Amino acid sequence: MGPVPRHRGPALTLIHRAAIEVGVPRHILVHSLAPPAPTVPTATRVTASPHAQEGPMRRRTLLTATAAAGPAALLMGLDQALADTPAPTSDGPLDARLATARALYDKGAHGRLLAVLPGLIGDGHAAASSRRELDQARLSSVYSLGAAVLSKVGSYEQARLTADRARTWAEVSGSPLASAAAARELAIVLRHQDRTEEAQCLMTAAASGVEATGLRTDAAVSAYAQMLCTLAYTAARGGHRTDALAMTEEARRAARRLPPRVPAGRLFPITPAAVDLYAVGVHWALGDAGAALEAGIDLRPEQFPTAERKARLGTDMARAWWAWQRPEQTAQALLSAYRSSPGEVRDRPAIRHIVAELAERYPHTTGVRELRTAVSLRP
What we know:
Elements: H1 9-22, H2 26-33, H3 56-68, H4 71-83, H5 94-107, H6 110-128, H7 133-152, H8 156-173, H9 176-192, H10 196-211, H11 218-237, H12 241-255, H13 272-285, H14 289-296, H15 307-323, H16 327-340, H17 342-346, H18 349-361, H19 368-374
């Protein structure tokens, strides 16, 4: 299979999906996805945007306007970027922009992140054309971040494609941590697609792969603990109680080696408190709301460094309260989550569904009217 012409965007998507399904060798797939070497100076490159030759400030203004246009427009723009790799933007060092994009994810600023992802994809591919392993790992990280936010907003088909791209580039780079991150995002998508057995097998392999590195650094231990947490939750969603609880305890043991505060730039920002938060989700997924609430009873937002994790504490506890049929506590937990990160309540379909049920069944419960307004539900 040769390189796919850049003007045949839809064909690229179809070819990629077909390659995954029928097992086309990875190196051929990567060859089909790799960007051609630039042949036109950046200043005169022709792109789909009439503003392509304008400066970074103008481009940022356009991104802000696009973000305000709503999720549908943002997802359409990302669709185009996945189908036809954008031209490089030259907006600055890729590492710095990737860190900024991760910060948007950590804030729950999903719309703003979706707006900047096409540019990151274009620049990531341009960097990866160097064939250096580090640049290829960075491109994998861009796709992993894209898969993460797409899963958050419920765009699972796009998330699957993006996670597959992340795995491809991680394998090419040879980075075990990039491979672990990509595998985790793919497992999350598979879980949402009710393919929990496949997701569990994938995460088992990912955890074993990280463990095989020897766990000589805190970064490796963090990755291992994160793989175990995701594996535990995946097993719980699949109804494998014994495996889920065993993996949760193994994650706790691994996390004891880690500091309570995550160093800046850590790919897997796992802490002992973060493992306890995963335990809340594991017990909830196993149908034991009482155990979920007990697991989270001593957790506080200040134990978590990012708005996304603070809000996740609120949404996970809300799910447990809702399963235990406690509408007022559910509403208060969701309000706490919303105050930490509005996007974690407003943008996640499963959480919006709880708000909708609260509004329908308990419209006069304290906090429900505020929640309904927050997520723009009609009375």
